[in-house]
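Students often ask why inverse folding is considered easier than folding. One informal answer: many sequences map to the same fold, so there is more than one right answer. In these notes we will look at a single instance of the problem. The structure comes first.
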């Protein structure tokens, strides 16, 4: 008979032995219920280990229970939000080193994925299109295993009368045979395979166009927007509403302008102000100290004539700084009604 020594460490035990100790700790009734859910091969291995353990120290019990709770928590985090989400929460709860160990153990034991995992990862609209033709009971069962917010997105797209039927079935499901779940899961995976094989990635759109236009020269940008105004006026208006240009710096709050100017290279600022309107130049000067303004004016005079392409490049560098600070929440770019401020 094997004897689990008091000084043994949980990390030195293999997975089957840990499972055996965990079963012993839970007691015969609970362990019997768990055993019913295991594959035959695991039942044999765990049973063999249980039969060959005649003593389990309190220390080992506590370590294995703690490990089980940590791994259960980690697995739930992964299912809810993915591996990065799990790492973030586990780092806060357990510390970086222990969090890494738990994630590594989960990867090593390769636990069976939660039912309908493919549905949890699927695009909501694609999944809705697939489920619209399914029976309410099937849809309800699948939604029970999905993230609540994603399940809600799908449920609202069904006709009102079917929404109620699905909701009622979700509320009355208490248990389902693993065999039934497995059978439905295989059917859904088979039907969804066509979506996976032909999966498309969201690309393009106004935001993509704006990102590109913010990286091209000002002359090119103006030409494209002017042409869009003739051929696609609605698109042109949408682009202009989101497109931030160097001249739009006057729309920033005073404090935000000063943050930007602290981040901007002095040589770029000197070059960017060549040929701009007096109004824009004065606006920049108003956000600098008197000494900085004097230095800037001297540098501009010393610079002399500059190529338009060089000026546009310098302006674009400043726009890039502004957009970066906006994304970081350091400054605020007004974008029409969508970003209205509530006092």
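Output (designed amino acids):
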């Amino acid at each position: 008979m094997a004897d689990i020594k008091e000084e043994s460490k949980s990390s030195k035990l293999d997975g089957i032995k840990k499972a055996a100790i965990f079963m012993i700790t839970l007691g015969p009734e609970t362990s019997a219920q768990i055993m019913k859910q295991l594959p035959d091969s695991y039942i044999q291995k765990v049973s063999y280990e249980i039969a060959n353990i005649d003593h389990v120290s309190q220390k080992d019990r506590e370590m294995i229970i703690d490990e089980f709770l940590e791994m259960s928590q980690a697995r739930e985090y992964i299912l809810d939000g993915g591996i990065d989400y799990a790492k973030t929460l586990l780092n806060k709860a357990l510390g970086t080193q222990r969090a890494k160990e738990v994630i590594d153990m989960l990867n090593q034991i390769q636990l069976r994925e939660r039912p309908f995992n493919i549905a949890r990862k699927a695009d909501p609209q694609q999944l809705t299109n697939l489920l619209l033709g399914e029976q309410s009971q099937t849809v309800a069962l699948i939604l029970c295993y999905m993230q609540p917010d994603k399940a809600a997105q799908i449920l609202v797209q069904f006709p009102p009368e079917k929404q109620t039927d699905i909701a009622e079935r979700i509320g009355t499901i208490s248990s389902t045979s693993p065999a039934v779940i497995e059978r439905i899961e295989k059917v859904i995976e088979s039907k969804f395979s066509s979506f996976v094989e032909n999966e498309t990635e969201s690309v393009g759109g106004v935001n993509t166009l704006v990102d590109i236009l913010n990286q091209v020269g000002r002359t090119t940008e103006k030409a494209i927007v002017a042409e869009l105004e003739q051929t696609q006026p609605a698109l042109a208006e949408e682009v202009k509403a989101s497109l931030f240009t160097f001249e739009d710096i006057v729309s920033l709050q005073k404090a935000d302008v000063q943050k930007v100017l602290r981040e901007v290279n002095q040589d770029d600022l000197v070059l960017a102000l060549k040929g701009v309107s007096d109004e824009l130049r004065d606006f920049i000067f108003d956000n600098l100290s008197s000494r900085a303004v004097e230095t800037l004016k001297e540098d501009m005079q010393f610079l002399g004539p500059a190529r338009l392409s060089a000026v546009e490049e310098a302006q674009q560098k400043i726009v890039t700084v502004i957009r970066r600070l906006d994304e970081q929440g350091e400054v605020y770019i007004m974008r029409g009604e969508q970003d209205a401020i509530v006092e």
